[in-house]
Amino acid sequence: MIGDGWAGSKDDRARDARASADNRRRIAVVTGTRAEFGLLAPVMEAIRDRADCELLVIAAGAHLIQPGLTFREVKARFDVADSVPMQTAGKVGRWHDVESLGRGIGRFGRSFERIRPDWVVVLGDRIEAFAAATAASVGGAALAHIHGGDRAEGVADEAMRHAITKLAHLHLPATETSAERVRRMGEPDGSIEVVGSPAIDGLDAIAPMDDEAFRALGSPRFVMLHHPIGRTDELEEHGANQILAAFDGRPVLALHPNFDPGRDGIMRALMNAPGSVRVRDHLDRAGFVALIKRVGAEGGALVGNSSAGLIEASAAGCPSVDVGERQGGRERAGGWTEWTHEDAGSVRDALRAVTDPARTRGGHPFGDGRSGVRIARVLAEQDPHAAGLTRKRCAY
User: Which of 17, 40, 295, 299 is 20 to 30 A from 322, alpha carbon to alpha carbon?
Assistant: First the structure.
């Protein structure tokens, strides 16, 4: 049982007794988006593989927006212990995000009270993670945060990521630089363990896309994955059109953006793009990695403002062009990424530079591909019920 006030029903208490009897640690992992699910999947697998842990997957937020394709992807790989609806289809904007956040906090609270996790695990900085973190912290559940301490401006990402850090009791940053930021926020050394990024896990096992699948996607020279940053639809449409213009008619596969405010503008640009641009709503993680490996081998690049351009792409051997300010401040691999302003000429120049065969490229700072196993071990070994763990103290 977690803290006072989690009395629950007779059935809940019986379930708690069974969990205590088999001595397995109940770990609730919250996933809210397709991209973050790709990062969390190796963590979930590693938890599921441990005899001393019980995995409880909670699918939330964007996974449940109709038609719910990514929710089906989660269910195909894991048993889902609960689902937490937040956003409403067709309602996009920052004030709608506020409503969704409030709805999510309450619904996560009911979920945690029912399933009684020993640890609640969230990743990153989105409203789904923030809602779950708030519910866990207020409710008295031990909270672990993956990818804390990063810098990435996004919409409200920077503030929410660091707010989750202050709510969390166990910190699992991807790099030593991020860990140092967490320390500077006053979090104790004993609560911080650098684990690498789970985005790197399993990449080596995925082969570049084969000829048939590559041709079915139009044999793209470039992949575009560009998300809104909270501006008006008109500004987001203009920015996306600048990127599209820089491709100069070369074949492109463009993936749908996430559901942040401004999405409709980017979608308008994609729907009106020239015939050389093919548009897909989603590729599963294995398909996406296979694609960027093939694109990188063919001399192309990933273009847009997704963190995948800075993390997965460099590890998969695909250069990337980082457009605009969304990833401002995030660590990146030497030589693999070129940053540029959001105008066609600058994107065109960046594409030329980053795909130059003579360009010198370095390693990436995001770990060795065993983050999931490392995170599962830490969660199994750290006692979520240790005296004083969930009582935060200001250390500065």
Answer: 40
Is residue 218 domain-resident? yes
Same domain, yes or no: 52 and 124: yes
CATH code (residue 180)? 3.40.50.2000
Q: How many domains does the chain have?
A: 2
Residues 70, 33 contacting (CB under 8 angstroms):
yes
144 in the same domain as 32:
yes
237 and 254 both lie in a single domain = yes
Average pLDDT value for the chain: 91
Burial pattern 173-197, b for ≥16 Cβ within 10 A else e, equals: bbbeebbebbbeeebeeebbbbbbb
- Spatial distance between the Cα atoms of 365 and 333, rounded to a whole number of angstroms: 7
* The token pair that represents 80 in the structure block: 């889902």
Q: Give per-residue pLDDT as tens, 244-269.
A: 999 999 999 999 998 888 999 999 99
Measure Cα distances from 341 to 114, 221, 261, 396 in Å.
48, 21, 20, 38
- pLDDT of 4 over the 50 cut: no
pLDDT bracket for residue 329 (50, 70, 90): confident
- Position 207 in a domain: yes
Residues 14 and 162 in one domain: yes
Q: Which two tokens stand for residue 230?
A: 């909270």
Boundaries of domain holding 76: 10-201+369-381
Q: How far apart are CA 389 and CA 169, in angstroms?
A: 7
Q: Summarize pLDDT for 127-164 with one digit per residue, the tens.
A: 999 999 999 999 999 999 999 999 876 557 788 999 99
Q: Which residue shows structure tokens 């005899």?
A: 51
Is 260 in the same domain as 142?
Answer: no
